[in-house]
Amino acid sequence: MKIAIVCYPTFGGSGVVATELGLELARRGHEIHFITYSQPVRLALLNANVHYHEVNVPEYPLFHYQPYELALSSKLVDMVKLYQIELLHVHYAIPHAYAGYMAKQMLKEEGIKIPMVTTLHGTDITLVGNHPFYKPAVTFSINKSDVVTSVSQSLKDNTLKLFDIKKEIVVIPNFIELDTKKIDSDIPCYRSVLAKQEERIITHISNFRKVKRIPDVIKIFNKIQKKIPAKLLMVGDGPEKEKAERLCNELGIADKVIFFGNSNEIDRILSYSDLFLLPSETESFGLAALEAMACSVPVISSNSGGLPEVNFDGFSGYLSDVGNVDEMASNALKILKEDTILNKFKQNALKTARKFDIKNILPLYEAIYHKAIEDSKEKAVLSKKKI
Ligand code: GMT
User: Fold this and answer.
1) GO molecular function: any one (predicted)?
2) Which domain holds residue 40?
């Protein structure tokens, strides 16, 4: 199949999922066209089956806001025609589903029918999409998609609760490519740069937005390090980072916390980690938690949104109510205190991650694509017959 994938190219779950999905589809012989405003961060390799088309938004002094949707929908029209693309898969409803719908309509005028699959990722529904200023356009573009998928049951339930949706929503969980997780973690010098032999390594990875509850990460770590020797690795960048650095100084733990910024070495960092913290206010899925588990790292998380579908309480880690930092810290200590317990949780984390192996999830997307393309062809035949 020839598929256009529209996504955000930045460090962030939806862009990562879209990129990994496209790369795996390409490996399986499909022709994949990534269409976005800059090369997705995890799209390192271009090959015969992987194309990247940049959306440029020309600046004009009249514009206070640059019309990205307009440029994106025009680019989609051009690329669909140039490469005979058969299907659009847009990740994150805002504004991708809206731009995709406009592209579909423009192409229809020229006699080209192309189906659109929209994948809902989380904040496009829960935080941003639900804002009254966006809601009518988000509702419209979800309802106009040919197929709608959501990354968890919780996100599906929220979408149906918050929006007037007339379409079926298919749950396809996020996935992980386990085969690529083999890191030479026993190179001792790397670990020793980060922590002393006796210190447990605790990690948090995110875009440091408010929803991640970064101060909770620091507070949980503070409680842990009072009981056992430990280091905290904070990976990522975003609006809450500075505040987090200040909090570490105030608590007198700055020497025990390393801020990395955005990194392309997530797997290596995780391979040295003993525990992952994700105390988010809400998380439709929690891809970072899955990435941690795929590197055998147990997870202490909140129990909000889709997290209970990914992290299993008492097995791959523990879940607590949002903000309950005391319980999160005491659960972390339960896991970290003894090597035998930690090793059991590590094995369980990996076992849990295996459920989300890309090999099991990718065929679900392929089946949806095939059906959407077939349905669209059928509709085209029917409408020709009517004429
Ligand atoms: O976490 C974010 O704010 C980024 C956002 C994104 O779109 O990149 O993440 C959402 O999509 C991820 C991939 O499906 C999910 O794993 C995250 O849980 C979800 N974030 C939230 O729901 C807050």
Assistant:
1) glycosyltransferase activity
2) 2-175+358-386
Q: Are residues 183 and 248 in the same domain?
A: yes
Residue 120 CA to ligand 1 centre (angstroms)? 10
The residue whose CA has the least distance to atom 21 of ligand 1 is 283
124, pLDDT greater than 90: no
Ligand 1 touching residue 276 (CB < 6 A): no
CA 22–ligand 1 middle distance (angstroms): 18
For the chain, how many residues are written? 387
Structural domain count of the chain: 2
8 A C-beta contact, residue 178 and residue 354: yes
* This prediction's pTM: 0.92
Number of H helices, E strands in the chain: 13, 13
How far CA 165 is from CA of 124, 142, 143, 247, in Å, comes to: 14, 7, 6, 42
Indicate the average pLDDT of the chain: 93
Is 373 found in the same domain as 272? no
Nearest protein Cα to ligand 1, atom 5: 13
Amino acid 188: pLDDT: 52
Q: What pLDDT was estimated at residue 127?
A: 76
- Band (46; pLDDT cuts 50, 70, 90): low
The reply to whether 316 and 273 lie within a common domain is: yes
Q: Is the CB of 92 under 6 A from ligand 1?
A: yes
